[in-house]
Amino acid sequence: MDMDSRQMSILLAYMGLWIFSLLQVAHTAPSSPVECPGSSGIGCTVSNAYGAWPDRSTCTVAKVLYPTTEQELVAAVAEGVRDQMKIKVVSRHSHSIPKLVCPGGEQGMLISTRDYASVISVNTSTFTATVDSGVGLRELVDAIAQYGMALPHSPYWDGVSVGGLLSTGAHGSSLWGRGSAVHEYVIGMRLVIPASPEEGFAKIIEVLEGDDDLNAAKVSLGVLGVISRVIFTLQPLFKRSVTNNFISDAALEDNIISFGLQNEFGDVTWYPSMGKAIYRLDNRVEINTPGNGVNDFLGFQRTPSVIAIAERSTEESSEVKMNAESKCEVAEVQIAALLAVGTGLKNDGISFTGYPVIGYQNLIQTSGNCQNGLDANPLPLLCPWDPRIKGIFFHQTAVSIAISRIASFISDVKKLRSARPSSLCGVDLYSGFLMRYVKKSDAYLGKTEDVVDIDITYYRADNATTPRLHEDVLEEIEQIALFKYQGLPHWGKNRNLGFETVTSKYPNLPKFLDVRRRFDPQGLFSSEWSDAVLGIASGGVSILKDNCALEGLCICSEDRHCAPDRGYLCKQGKVFSNARVCRYEPF
Ligand SMILES: *[C@@H]1O[C@H](CO)[C@@H](O)[C@H](O)[C@H]1NC(C)=O
Ligand SMILES: *[C@@H]1O[C@H](CO)[C@@H](O)[C@H](O)[C@H]1NC(C)=O
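Above: query sequence and 2-acetamido-2-deoxy-beta-D-glucopyranose SMILES. Below: predicted holo structure tokens.
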């Protein structure tokens, strides 16, 4: 495809929607993941921020409560336990991709932490902060910076809550010190757990550093009870100096480990189809180093709805025409544009004028500007994945591979790329392979070794029965990461197959399950999904049916799991012979 037609389609969409939008009320806030037919909080559904669960089902709940104080939180849990309801906690925005927030059955109770976010209490002599679980990451890091303190690591997307990011093991990138997982900086937690009728059906427990149970509570998938408060250990506020180095990926497997060891906050964004990678040289500098830089990552900036819609329609048209080359061209333009604006780094908080960009930790580590949509005239500005528009829609595979095996993984990906050079262009449209470092953890469900975490985001069709262009290549990479190299799936991302065999990858899982049995013996905070993931239910995480492999609900074992009517058959992997992938081999 030529760029002219892409630009034309964007322009046309822009004009069309410009007129359309004059008639519409523009959105200001992201859509709520919880929707109820009336105002009673009864008969509601819950989704994630992307508007679709991996299996595209609807999660129905009987009741939603919005506690504002710990007392109300205890009362909410007590009500659920008394009535023997399945219970789950959902944050304001619900960014986990798997169904972790869906209570078991269809008559469960949802406790939203949307309004449970008033406490951020900083102690400047002990360098700690005590925080309500509903507090957003952005609010947290900005509040503690006011006191001259910093949380050294966090996810890059700041639209998540403290309770949600901890429960799924969220992280940044570092092999230094305690590493990049936020839970490594937790020194205490208060949880509300089920209790006997004599105790009033719910009680508060405090788990502090030194207590083994904290290793379960820090990363819990939400199955232990409700997190009420978290105590973080903090560091004095510091600045960081960031320089992006966009170079050939020829030596990636040789230098991926040394790069991580040399750069405290370094990460690598690998664009496999381009044969290049952005090495982010990112290190701590003295607090008095000049610079008021801000990281406003381009992919998380407010986007005019028409642009998001045009991007999606361009991608769909490449898919329908089975034209991977057109994706390569768009990816090249997009990456050039990304680099031209320093990926969204702004030296003075306003514009990018060159490297290094130096700024305060809270303004460099994490961003998420689109979360607060704008009622701009004439166009609403929002996150490009906002489910209220037909914008981008994707799968996300995020797997952590031990540093001892990461070089082999990279070599395998390169072999698949050589065999079909344009097959990975679709990935480059979504920030390539984001490679971040995470250290071995004491948390029972934390990383079991020092790892490189790889985030891969890619096209998801509107219809679950529609195959993707070159889908066999990404499926093979996914299975190489998960099964050849025994990678650990991110708890809050991934498709169902990501959790196949996961129980065998966590030697401390029995200890975790023991804590679960003590905290919630009836399993009220467990669901079909968490039981499948943790091996409590025997059925497993896969859903076997026609077309199931297209959406990662299963690994194909028969052609009908792919799309045989469209020429996609279940075949052996090319590099990993144990892989089973849906390959386009018509006739
Ligand atoms: C900070 O922690 C110290 C030591 O535990 C305690 O004595 C002090 O009262 C705390 N300050 C605040 C403001 O909570
Ligand atoms: C998906 O496509 C199939 C086959 O074309 C069709 O039968 C089905 O109705 C579609 N489903 C949805 C939800 O559009």
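The longest strand covers residues 239-248.
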